[in-house]
């Protein structure tokens, strides 16, 4: 099993970062560069998002479902329910948490666990790390644009 974890300080209040992680519009902004389109059914717990991938992932449609959503704690978990034939990970589970870090900053934590499909763990982890890097870069760019 591969575990990918990353946390980074974001120069924006926790509520703003949580908005980018937890809302449809925020997720679209945070997914730029590796997700071309996102469509949502529902919001919060039970939400399903369909993502058309692009870039290093290739072109396909991945479906994820939110299994835990706690707005007050600013944390959520989700899992891939359809890999679209493009994501080489079985039993993918992801988590996001935003932690306040003073008045104008926060810490964003992302975690994923999965079993690689027909590829080595190191290669699979590098792919997951690339996704995380793009996500963090996008979040930081969006909050900087608004500043």
Automatic annotation (TrEMBL):
InterPro entries, A to Z: Polyketide_cyclase/dehydratase, START-like_dom_sf
Domain of life: Bacteria
Pfam families: Polyketide_cyc2
Record protein name field: SRPBCC family protein
Organism from which the protein derives: Rhizorhabdus wittichii
